[in-house]
Design goal:
Elements (H helix, E strand, L loop, with lengths): L2 H12 L3 H18 L5 H4 L8 H12 L9
Amino acid sequence: MSLSTFKRHFIKEYKTSPGKWLQDKRLQKAKETLEQGNLNPSDIYLDFGYNNLSNFSIAFKNKFGFNPSETSS
């Protein structure tokens, strides 16, 4: 199966692109990790595929409507 065929089938099934789906799953898992209260955003952003804390924080806030630092209290 070609990449474009895969993407077409993926979008048809999940109503989103593979990249967006993966980002959403990573951010959801990051939120769950932060809600446990043991770690700070600065401790986990690399584990969830972000190269810097700023990009992680922006993506997190865009998805959930609040900063990741507000979760780990």
